[in-house]
User: Which sequence fits this backbone?
């Protein structure tokens, strides 16, 4: 297990019933959320993480540390720490791109002990069912990794190996908000898919935004957090 680096801002955990947990995407780190957490932290504790091999988290040499199941177990430890501080905390996970995918996978595979209570999916897709599309994605990540700020091994955290999330996404009933920029061409179709499969989810398409909508339009992400908090 990788002990993920975390940073907490806003009220102390336990002074509010809601804690927000922020998970970035590949070749990024917790600071990608700074503008959005500054808004949300006025009311709720914000816990941001660095994924394995990213930011201030350790960079394991074992390739298995970057698999989906290993990273979900790392998230379990962070969630356990939040609930150890206050067992009654409800947790809203906000994930960007890969971070949102991990949020979906975590919700579909965890019970109440490690479960989260709401999701905000920022520029997120549900993965792939078509094996050729999946292979193409992995090859693209591998090719781009040479220009990433993280190691090529750490970049494998973004690989897709199965269609579990797509196969099970309709099982989700917790509050969900989708946030996508109208210029994020690679993920607009994925959000159309999620919107169809999750009719209870709310969607915000942000005009003039691209993939890093939380940096250009942090207020839109903060509003999506407020929306799901209002459903809890």
Assistant:
């Amino acid at each position: 297990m990788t002990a993920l680096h975390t940073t907490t801002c806003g009220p102390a955990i336990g002074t509010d019933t809601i804690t927000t947990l922020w998970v970035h995407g590949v070749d990024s780190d917790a600071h990608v959320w700074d503008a959005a957490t500054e808004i949300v932290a006025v009311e709720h504790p914000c816990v941001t993480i660095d994924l394995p091999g990213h930011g201030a988290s350790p960079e394991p040499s074992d390739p298995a540390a970057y698999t989906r199941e290993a990273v979900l177990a790392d998230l379990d430890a962070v969630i356990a720490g939040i609930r150890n501080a206050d067992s009654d905390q409800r947790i809203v996970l906000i994930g960007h791109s890969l971070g949102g995918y991990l949020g979906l996978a975590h919700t579909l595979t965890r019970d109440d002990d490690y479960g989260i209570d709401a999701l905000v999916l920022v520029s997120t897709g549900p993965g792939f069912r078509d094996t050729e599309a999946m292979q193409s994605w992995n090859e693209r990540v591998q090719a781009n990794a040479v220009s990433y700020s993280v190691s090529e091994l750490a970049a494998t955290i973004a690989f897709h190996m199965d269609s579990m999330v797509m196969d099970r996404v309709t099982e989700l009933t917790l509050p969900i908000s989708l946030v996508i920029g109208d210029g994020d061409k690679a993920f607009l179709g994925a959000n159309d898919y999620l919107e169809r499969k999750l009719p209870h989810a709310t969607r915000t398409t942000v005009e003039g935004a691209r993939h890093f909508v939380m940096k250009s339009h942090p207020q839109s992400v903060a509003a999506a957090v407020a929306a799901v908090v209002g459903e809890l």
